[in-house]
Every structure is written in structure tokens, then in C-alpha cells.
Design brief:
The structure holds 2 protein chains of 2 kinds.
Chain A (H helix, E strand, L loop, with lengths): L4 H24 L7 H19 L2 H4 L3 H21 L9 E6 L3 E6 L1 H25 L3
Antiparallel strand pairs in A: 1-2
Helix pairs in contact in A: 1-2, 2-5, 4-5
Chain B lengths: L1 H4 L1 H23 L3 H22 L4 E7 L4 E6 L2 H24 L5 H23 L3 H19 L6 H32 L4 H6 L1 H9 L3 H15 L8 H4 L5 H10 L1 H16 L3 H24 L3 H21 L6 H26 L15 H15 L5 H15 L9 H27 L5 H4 L6 H19 L1 H11 L16 H19 L1 H10 L6 H23 L4 H23 L15 H19 L3 H21 L3 H22 L12 H26 L4 H18 L4 H9 L1 H28 L1
Antiparallel strand pairs in B: 1-2
Helix pairs in contact in B: 2-3, 2-5, 3-4, 3-5, 4-5, 4-12, 4-16, 4-21, 5-6, 6-7, 7-10, 10-13, 12-15, 12-16, 13-15, 14-15, 14-19, 15-16, 15-19, 16-17, 16-18, 16-21, 16-22, 17-19, 17-21, 18-19, 18-21, 18-23, 19-23, 26-30, 27-28, 28-29, 31-32, 32-33
Classes of the chains: A mainly alpha, B mainly alpha.
Chain lengths: ~140, ~775
């Protein structure tokens, strides 16, 4: 599956841009529309665009399933740490940092859990895309 | 002393730790892994001895699941300690024997053998010492599982697999009923502690007064009956003789089969007041005793013979418990364990030397194998109850007890009980004669001619057991003190003596010997009578039939239910969901008709969108090509996204658009590999069901959305308001949707993402494997 020149030209700009937007959406997810799941799907969509434009050869070399497994590990660890500290599984806390330049920054530990969700969605989507796309060869 | 208290869990968990170690060590040590078993068993044995000398009040309790009153608690009463001593003591001997008995196998196989044996030993010790009923149940089930592994050790043989499976199913079935019984006891009395149940009359009264009392009694007795191979569940024990002989000795003579009887002893003080207790246990125990004795006499397989005599003795003790004669339990259990352990190990030696276990192929071994012969004679004398062995003491005590009368009486009149017990003992005497004369006397057979005596590694263990069978008989006063101390009957004072002071038991003994010898001499006649008797269906056959019926039913159900048709699955799950939702709405007493629908509120663009959505939905259903359907479906999805624009819901809009994009790509990728779509004519019935399910799904979804957005039903809306207010305050996030996903409902999400990862891995694995094979 290789795309036409127009798709390729557009993709060269659109794919990184979409990935960037997905990261923004992920970061703002706690307070504004977005979050790990949507951002993950968006990154997956960017990946799909890449596959359509440039073919699967390069993307297939990357072990996408490891991305989703890493995500699961991150999510479960986020839940396990409070458990090991004697609090309920998956109890989240909010960390406050007083950073230079930026000022007070609020980081809920739920963000790490969300990062896991992001990686899982992206990893699973890409695994399935790459594997299905390779079926025809 | 707190240190001593810690001994109780240590006794139980040392074998488990050793089991784990054996799995790992076995790879290097091979046959020598058995030494680990000997050491672990000996350590537990010494621990038990230490506990016994410390006194009876020792207990160990730690909180485990306080919410339902379950505790990790052990206790060291004399009876439990006695059972634990037997388990660990015989475990040591079986370990020694196994090292010399097991043939050359792969190290992995050997390590598995010892690991299973050690785990079994730990679980048995747990059964013996556990105070908490739930803990006891867990150990009980572990013994069932490990015994499954051990019986099926020669898993290349079909009989071994079958025997192991039958044993597991029968005992696990009983274990489950027993668990229900335990739960009834625990919930009606509020305590799972055996000690509390035995010692506190108030708890017992609460149980006896409960309407579920009879159910608890029956369920627990059923568990004990299956484990201890009582009629009609006796058949699994002979079937389990496919196990290696040390395993049979350990599990099926000395320990596991006694667990059921042991449990009856534990529950006698709790259930004994009910007439049902004696009414059930006495007839069943008696039937098992007779059946076991008769079948043992008629069998030709040496291990089968021994297994059936074990069944008989188990029946005897069950009967004694039914009669409330708990004072005898330690005595009967102890004497049986000694001689039966010795005899089983002797049979193992005979099989080792001659490669056969069939009594018809054996004979004249006494010159070739003098030590084994001697050991067998000692064991058989005790089995027959001949003066001055331990078995003699046990039999005399039994007769004396039956003559003197028992605290309870079952449905069987006492004279019949006595007569049948004498008959069963006479049969056991005849069995002992058969063992000694059939195997060691007469002309040497073909198998006997190639035999040879074995080394001390094999005869050491039976030597100790047989020696104790004789020694404990000779030292009758000491034995009396031991078995009285360890008995579960309160204040038991047994005076066993080799010079009986009452005439009754002696006369009965003489009668037993004469009758037994007569039966032995008439064995040819009896054998002919059996072969000419009409073959009644055995319990084994009935069980097999039952199992076959279960399998057939399961297959029939699966074939119909799991038809493999995606449409059927989809229709089924949708119909179920819809039905459930409709039920919930109906229960709440609300319906969509209570919501006023005004056309004015629907703007022209809202109506237009709805019309287009409806049109694309019909297009999906009417489409004659897959691509057409996919396009219609995608349009439907993007039109739905427009709906979220109208209602200003950017979150869901974003998600909807992305999901639609990605799923369209999926659809197109998959469509490429699907065969050409051919519109098929569905039968009218199927068509009707499909339409009905679709309409029902639509109607339900419609109802839910209408109801949840209607201002009339504030209570339904409160959930959303609640989340919105709590989101910022408790989770520090303004986006309630995401906060729900990652915080309030994080455990749900955790499950979902796990599924997602698994799906990804499955797709990866399946497609890769398919490509590789192509």
C-alpha cells in the first residue's frame, strides 16, 4: 500500500502536526477537552496516515506491541504504588511543584495513569494496523 | 511462649517451602531430591513432637480476612497433633522409601514427584492442625489437587489419567459440599473456629436451633464420606491404585483417606447430638466395612486388596464415630496406619522384584525374599488381629466397646452390628491369610523365579512400621496411655492389655479367627459364587455413565449455544442487554412516555440531521455490497459527530470524529480480505428476530437518552451534577469526563485497557502465526 504524491506531501506535514496536537490534547486533558484515550486515538490516526502514505515497511520494523505493554505497566504501577503504601489501589494524589519561570505547577498522579492509557491505545491501534496491512503481502 | 506458638504454622509451611525448593533443586539433584523430602518431613515431625510435649493449649491466630471472621489460625489439640505426627512420621519413611523406589526418570519428573508429595504433606498437616474452617477447607482442597497430580504420576497410562480424574472429581465434589456446610456453620454461629464451636455450648445451640442445621450436617458429612471413600463413593480408592506405591501408601493408607474420618471426629462434639448423625454414619460405616472386606477378599490385585481393606477400616471408624465412640479413634487409626503402611510398602517391594501385582501370578517368594516375607507376616498378623500385635489390641478394644454399649445408637440393632463387625474382621483375617500364603508360599511361579531380595533402602521403612505394629502390641500399657492421650474423645481411659480380663471379647476373637480361617479355606467356592452371580452395576460404572452424560450434555449445549455465528452472538448479547435495561426501567416505574416531546424544541437543523441519520442507517441495512455498507456506516458516524456540534459537546465530538476515522480505516483494511458479499435470503423467522432485536435496541437507547436528559427526572441527572462538582474538588481536574476515566472509575479503565492490550497481542500473535505457517 503506497499512497499517491499528494497524500505523501500532505502527510509529511500532517503526521508530525497531528502527533503534536495529540500530545497537547493529552496534556490538557485533565482540565479541558482531551485525555489519554482521545489523544491515543489521534496519534493512532496519525500513524494510519503515515502507513497509507509511505507503506508499512518502516513502521513494521518497530515493535508496537511493546508500546502497549509498556503503557499497561505504567498504568498498573500508578495504581500499585499507593496500594503498597497502604492506601487503596488506584488512589491518586495531586503533586504540586514550584518551578522556576512557570511558577506553581499542579500534577495529578492520574496523569501517569493517563499516559499509560495513551500508550496502550496508540500501541494497540498501530499493532493492528501494521499487522492487518501486512496481511496482503 | 510465643516462640513455641510459631511452631504451628512452621510445621505446616516447611513442607510447602520445601516443595518449591524441590522443583528448583530437582533439576540438579535428580533422585537425591528425596533427601529434601525426608528432611522436611522429619523437621515437621520434630516440630509436632515439640508441640505435643508443650501441652494442649497451644494455638496460633493471626488476622486474615476479618470482614468475614476468617482467621489464619492453627491449634494443637492432642487429636490434631496425633494426626500431624502420623502424617509427618510416615512422610519421613515414605521419603526414604521413594529415594530407593523411583525408577530412573528425567530430573524434571522426579522434582515434580517430590514437589507434589511435599505440598501434599503440608496440606495434610494443615488439615490436621487448622482451627479455622475456611483454612481447613483450603488445605483440604490442596490435598485433593496434589493427590490428583500424584495418582496421575504415570500419566502416559490411560488408567492413571482416569483414576486421577475420578479421584479428583469425587473428592472435589465432596469438598465443595463441605465448603457450603462450613459456610452455613460459620454464618449461623458467627464463628469459623473449631475450638470455639467445640467449647462454647451457646454457639452449638445456635447452630442446632437453625433451620439449616440438617443441611450443614449432611453437606459436611458428604465431604467426609467422599474423602474417606465411604459407600457409595468407595470406588475411587481402588481406582487410585495406579499411583506409584509410595504414594498409595502415603495417601491411600495412612493420611489423605483419613482426612474425612478425622473431620468426622472434629465434628462429633458439634453434630453428635442430632439423631441424624448416628442414623447416617452407622449404616454407611457398616456397609462400607462389609463391602470393603468382601471386595478385598475377592480381589486379585495386591494393591487393590489392600485398598479395599483400607476402605473397610475407614468404614469401621466412621461407624464408631456414628456410635459416639470417639475414644477409639486414635487407637484404630494408629494401628491401621502401622500395618497398612508396612503392607503397602511390602507390596511395592514385591512389585519391584517381580514386576507383577497379581496374586495369581505370585507364589513361593519366601525363600527368595526372606526379609520381605518376614515384614509381610508381621503386617498381616496385625491386619488379622492376632495376639500379640497392635491390631490385636485394636480389635479387642473394638469388641469390648461394642459389647459394653455405645453412647449413641444408629438404626442398626446392636447384636446385628456386633455380628457384622465380627464377619468383617473374619474376612480381614482371611485376606491376611491370602496375602501371606498366596504370595510367599506354594510353588514358585514364573514371576517369582526371576525375583531377588532388595536392599535395606527399600525395607527400612516397612521394617520400622512393621516393628511398631508388633512393638506397640507388646508394650500394651504404654500404647494404652498414648492412644488415650491422643484420642478425640474427652477423658478417654483405654486399658489395653494382652491378657484380656473379660471373656466376651476373647470369645469373639476366637470366633473371628475360626470364621476367617473357614472363609479362607472356602475361597474357591466363594470365587465361583462370585463369578456366577449376576453382575450388578457397580458404582464405578454408574459414575462413568454419569460423567459421560455430563460430557454429552455439555457438548450438545456448546454446539447449539456457541454456534460460531457472529450474528447469533451479537443478537444474543444485545437482546440480553436490552432485556436487562427494560427490566430496570420497569422496576423504577419510569417510561419514556412520561417525557413530553415537543417538536418546537427540535430545530430545523436538528430534524434534518435526524433524518439523514435515519437514511444512512437504512442504507447500511439495504446495501448490497460491503463497501457500500461501510460508506453508509461511516457517514452515519460523522453525521452523529455533527450532532455533537449542535449540542456543543467538544469532548465527545473529538472522540467521535477520531474513532470514526480510525474505524473506517480498519473497515477498509479488513474488507479487502473478506470474500465478495452476496445478499442472502434469510428465512422469515430469522429476519423477524433480527428486526425485533434491532428495534428493541433502538427503542431502549432512545428511552435512556430521553429520560436522562429530561428535566423531569432530576434523580437521574444528579449523577452528572455530582461528578461535575466532585471532579475539581477531589481530583483537581475540570474535565469531568477524563477525571471519571482516570480517577473515579480508574479500576474500570484498568480492566478495559488490559483487554485492549490483550486484543492487540492476540491480533499480533494470530496474524504472525498465520503468515508464518502460510
Amino acid at each position: 500500500m503506497t499512497g499517491d504524491p499528494i497524500l505523501r506531501t500532505v502527510s509529511r506535514f500532517a503526521v508530525p502536526w497531528t502527533v503534536w496536537v495529540s500530545i497537547v490534547i493529552f496534556m490538557q486533558g485533565h482540565n479541558m477537552p482531551g485525555g489519554g484515550f482521545v489523544a491515543g486515538v489521534m496519534a493512532g490516526a496519525a500513524g494510519a496516515m503515515y502507513l497509507l502514505a509511505f507503506g508499512t515497511a518502516k513502521a513494521a520494523r518497530f515493535p508496537w506491541w511493546k508500546v502497549s505493554v509498556t503503557g499497561l505497566l505504567i498504568s498498573v504501577t500508578t495504581g500499585t504504588v499507593p496500594f503498597l503504601m497502604g492506601r487503596p489501589y488506584m488512589q491518586h494524589a495531586i503533586w504540586h511543584f514550584d518551578l522556576p519561570v512557570i511558577g506553581l505547577y499542579e500534577l495529578p498522579t492520574a496523569t501517569f495513569f493517563d499516559l499509560g492509557v495513551y500508550l496502550i491505545v496508540l500501541g494497540t491501534l498501530m499493532t493492528v494496523f501494521v499487522e492487518l496491512a501486512q496481511e496482503g503481502r | 511462649m510465643p516462640q513455641l506458638e510459631l511452631l504451628l504454622p512452621a510445621i505446616v509451611f516447611i513442607p510447602f517451602a520445601a516443595a518449591v525448593l524441590a522443583l528448583w533443586l530437582g533439576r540438579f539433584a535428580g533422585q537425591r531430591t528425596g533427601i529434601l523430602m525426608v528432611l522436611a518431613a522429619a523437621a515437621s515431625f520434630l516440630g509436632c513432637l515439640q508441640v505435643v510435649t508443650a501441652g494442649a493449649s497451644l494455638g496460633f491466630t493471626r488476622e486474615w480476612i476479618p470482614g468475614i471472621n476468617v482467621a489464619l489460625s492453627f491449634r494443637a489439640d492432642p487429636y490434631g497433633c496425633f494426626f500431624a505426627l502420623l502424617i509427618s512420621g510416615i512422610g519421613t519413611l515414605v521419603g526414604i522409601y521413594s529415594v530407593n523406589y523411583l525408577p530412573a526418570l528425567t530430573p524434571a519428573r522426579v522434582s515434580r514427584y517430590y514437589a507434589a508429595l511435599l505440598a501434599f504433606m503440608g496440606a495434610m498437616l494443615g488439615v490436621a492442625l487448622a482451627d479455622d474452617l475456611i483454612l481447613l477447607f483450603i488445605f483440604w482442597e490442596v490435598t485433593s489437587l496434589t493427590s490428583f497430580l500424584l495418582i496421575g504420576f504415570w500419566y502416559e497410562q490411560e488408567t492413571a489419567r482416569k483414576g486421577a480424574l475420578t479421584a479428583l472429581l469425587v473428592t472435589a465434589l465432596g469438598g465443595l459440599t463441605m465448603m457450603i456446610g462450613f459456610i452455613i456453620v460459620g454464618t449461623t454461629t458467627g464463628s469459623y473456629s473449631l475450638r470455639a464451636l467445640t467449647e462454647q455450648a451457646a454457639l452449638r445451640e445456635r447452630l442446632v436451633g437453625s433451620p439449616l442445621f440438617m443441611a450443614a450436617l449432611l453437606l459436611i458429612v458428604l465431604g467426609a464420606m467422599t474423602k474417606s471413600a465411604q459407600w457409595p463413593f468407595h470406588f475411587w480408592l481402588p481406582g487410585a491404585m495406579v499411583a506409584p506405591t509410595p504414594v498409595s501408601t502415603y495417601l491411600h493408607a495412612a493420611t489423605m483417606v483419613w482426612a474425612g474420618v478425622f473431620l468426622l471426629g472434629r465434628f462429633l462434639p458439634i453434630f453428635g447430638t442430632s439423631p441424624a448423625w448416628a442414623g447416617i454414619l452407622v449404616p454407611i460405616g457398616l456397609a462400607t466395612l462389609l463391602l470393603g472386606a468382601v471386595e478385598a477378599f475377592l480381589d486379585t490385585d495386591l494393591k487393590g486388596i489392600l485398598a479395599k481393606t483400607t476402605v473397610a477400616t475407614l468404614g469401621l471408624v466412621t461407624m464408631l464415630y456414628g456410635l459416639g465412640a470417639a475414644g477409639q479413634d486414635a487407637l484404630q487409626m494408629f494401628s491401621h496406619a502401622m500395618y497398612k503402611g508396612a503392607l503397602f510398602l511390602v507390596v511395592g517391594i514385591v512389585e519391584h522384584a517381580t514386576h507383577t501385582r497379581d496374586i495369581r501370578d505370585l507364589g513361593g517368594l519366601r525363600h527368595k525374599m526372606p526379609v520381605t516375607f518376614f515384614l509381610c507376616v508381621l503386617g498381616a498378623l496385625s491386619l488379622a488381629g492376632v495376639w500379640p500385635t497392635f491390631g490385636f489390641l485394636a480389635k479387642e478394644a473394638l469388641y469390648a466397646q461394642l459389647l459394653a454399649g455405645t453412647p449413641l445408637s444408629g438404626l442398626v440393632p446392636s447384636w446385628l452390628l456386633l455380628a457384622l463387625t465380627v464377619l468383617a474382621n473374619a474376612l480381614l483375617f482371611a485376606v491376611a491369610c491370602r496375602l501371606v500364603f498366596g504370595v510367599f508360599f506354594g510353588a514358585p511361579t514364573e514371576a517369582a523365579r526371576h525375583s531377588h531380595e532388595v536392599g535395606p533402602g527399600l525395607w527400612l521403612s516397612p521394617m520400622i512400621l512393621a516393628g511398631l505394629s508388633l512393638g506397640l502390641g507388646v508394650l500394651a500399657p504404654a500404647t494404652s496411655a498414648i492412644v488415650s492421650h491422643f484420642s478425640s474423645g474427652p477423658g478417654t481411659r483405654l486399658t489395653l492389655t494382652l491378657a484380656p480380663d473379660h471373656l466376651g471379647p476373647v470369645l469373639l476373637s476366637v470366633g473371628t479367627f475360626l470364621l476367617g480361617f473357614g472363609i479362607y479355606r472356602g475361597r474357591a467356592v466363594l470365587g465361583r459364587m462370585r463369578s456366577s452371580a449376576p453382575g450388578a452395576p457397580t458404582m464405578q460404572a454408574l459414575w462413568d455413565k454419569g460423567m459421560d452424560a455430563v460430557t454429552t450434555a455439555a457438548i450438545g449445549f456448546s454446539v447449539r449455544w456457541q454456534s460460531g455465528s457472529l450474528r447469533w452472538y451479537l443478537a444474543g448479547s444485545l437482546a440480553f442487554t436490552v432485556g436487562l435495561s427494560a427490566l430496570a426501567l420497569q422496576r423504577a416505574g419510569i417510561s419514556v412516555f412520561q417525557v413530553p416531546i415537543s417538536l418546537q424544541e427540535m430545530t430545523w437543523y436538528g430534524l434534518t440531521l435526524c433524518g439523514m441519520l435515519g437514511f444512512t442507517a437504512v442504507m447500511v441495512a439495504r446495501s448490497t455490497t460491503r463497501v457500500g455498507a461501510a460508506i453508509a456506516l461511516t457517514s452515519n458516524g460523522f453525521l452523529t459527530a455533527l450532532l455533537f456540534v449542535v449540542y456543543r459537546s467538544p469532548d465527545i465530538l473529538l472522540t467521535q470524529i477520531l474513532i470514526e476515522t480510525v474505524s473506517t480505516i480498519f473497515l477498509l483494511l479488513i474488507l479487502y480480505y473478506l470474500p465478495v458479499f452476496r445478499p442472502e435470503g434469510l428465512p422469515p423467522m430469522r429476519r423477524f428476530v433480527n428486526v425485533a432485536v434491532s428495534v428493541a435496541v433502538g427503542a431502549t437507547m432512545f428511552s435512556f437518552i430521553m429520560l436522562s436528559t429530561s428535566p423531569q427526572f432530576r434523580e437521574l441527572k444528579n449523577l452528572g451534577v455530582d461528578y461535575l462538582t466532585r471532579s475539581m474538588a477531589q481530583a483537581g481536574g475540570a474535565n469531568a469526563v477524563n477525571v471519571i476515566i482516570v480517577d473515579f472509575r480508574a479500576i474500570d479503565t484498568n480492566g478495559e485497557i488490559t483487554v485492549l492490550v490483550l486484543v492487540g497481542l492476540l491480533v499480533y500473535g494470530l496474524l504472525r502465526a498465520r503468515r508464518k505457517s502460510a
